[in-house]
Amino acid sequence: MRRTLIAGNWKMNGSFSANRALLTDIIAGLPDGNSIETLVCAPAPYLAQCAEVLGKTPVKWGAQDVSAHIKGAFTGEVSATMLADCQCKYVIVGHSERRAYHAESNELVAQKVVQALSEKLTPVVCVGETLEQREGGATNAIVGAQLQVVLDVLSAEQVSEIVLAYEPVWAIGTGKTATPQMAQDVHAFLRGQLSVKSAEAANTVRILYGGSMKPENAKELLAMADIDGGLIGGAALKAADFLAIISAC
Ligand code: 13P
Questions:
Q1: Which fold does the domain 62-211 belong to in CATH?
Q2: Distance, CA 132 to ligand 1 centroid (Å)?
């Protein structure tokens, strides 16, 4: 049984005061006996604040990116060791915004996954196709290639340690959501690819859906067999919406 994971990706939003209000409302509004794993991925300057505010709560925190390097002369980069020092449990790796605006290749993403795992951080590995690629019938080829480069650098045991996120680029921040069946088809394809590497990983690795997930569509998406949670952008910035998605699980 895979435990549902609802993760907020705050992207480049927030301030000390806004974060405190958002986190306080999320903690206060979590359903009683909540069994859903809940995570917020904050900008790096706010990770210590997350540790302070969330430390004694069930809500976990993580980062949005990690350096592919261990340490040293890499100005502006944040290492996996530093994220672990901020008591992060998770880090998003290979988000489509980093792939598009920072030219992150599949190979660089794979190196980042290795770095995250070396510090016992769970990488949330993002894959997804553009609209052009979908319309050209290349969705499985694109997400398959993105995943394969990561699988190639990991042992079967390490693959069991990751979380995957399918985020169709055309659905991010656009209000357009993949239909539950469209998302399920890609999730099932990704799970099949995991099974070639490790039957165990195919069973246990959680595959999140991301792309305009909101309270109105979360229930239908999360009801699909291979959708194990959500990676949520805009709706994670409003406590009421984030909580409503958790309640929809
Ligand atoms: P939105 O939920 O705003 O579409 O963002 C999705 C996303 O990119 C999460 O990583």
A1: TIM Barrel (3.20.20)
A2: 19
